[in-house]
Amino acid sequence: MQNLIQQLFQLQGFERKTQDELELYGYCEKDRTSYWLVIHGEPKLSPEYQAKLLSDCKKSTLDPALEKNINLLVTWQTDEEDDRTKKLVHYTEEDVYFFKKHVLLYTLSEFEALQQQIETNGFDIVFRNTLSNTQTFTEYKLQHKHQEGGWQSLLFRLAIKVSAVTLQSSSKADLSSLEKNIKDNILSSSNADLLVATESSLVDTTTLRDITPEELLASMTEKLRSAGYELDC
């Protein structure tokens, strides 16, 4: 996991600021400054330990902006996500002192499966193309729904916990697929007719930025009443 995290930050333009055991990554441009410190294992973050970590980070760079722009990522390999683990993650991430904290949980099987994807397709492809692929997201949602692990779950967990990861823009095909999924969900709803009529009332309003919210509501209400719907407003 240590090598994967280093590659991930380097892919986003971060530089490792230290050559020793301290895993500190930094990104400094005129419009953006961000630092990430990475540690591994079960989070045992006493105030004294956190103070030492922050002090070590400040010694590694002369940037005065570090203290206000530093995140702490804790990668923690577990066998399962039991109540104790959930409570410790919540407690750690709610602790606002010294660092903004993020705990990445993963199992060995999830990590090995993601590594296999990287070896097969390449690191850049997995974290740029595969991550933004709608099929990958669908598989992730199914895993999350059934509380099952998989490389897709770990991939999205990395994207969520490491906010430095940026997603590629969706392709036209992805957007078309998303639009189809939305329409299918609307048509399968118990209020399908009303939802379709509501959508139509918005589609007919082509100059949304030129009218007030009150005018928009009045226009939608009038069109829905014309379509035979009784409204209280």
What is the fold's blueprint, element by element?
Layout: H1 2-11, E1 15-16, E2 23-29, E3 32-40, H2 47-60, E4 70-77, H3 83-94, E5 100-106, H4 108-121, H5 123-130, H6 134-145, H7 151-161, H8 172-187, H9 192-203, H10 213-226
Parallel strand pairs: 3-4, 4-5
Antiparallel strand pairs: 1-2, 2-3
Protein described:
The protein is α/β, with parallel strands linked by helices and 233 residues long. It has 2 domains: 2-161, no CATH class; 172-226, no CATH class. Helices cover 53% and strands 14% of the residues. Strands 1-2-3-4-5 form a 5-stranded mixed sheet. Helix 4 crosses helix 5, helix 4 (108-121) crosses helix 7 and helix 9 packs across helix 10 (213-226). The radius of gyration is 23 Å and the shape is globular. The chain starts with a helix and ends in a 7-residue tail after the last helix. Mean pLDDT is 77; it is low at 167-175 and 203-209.
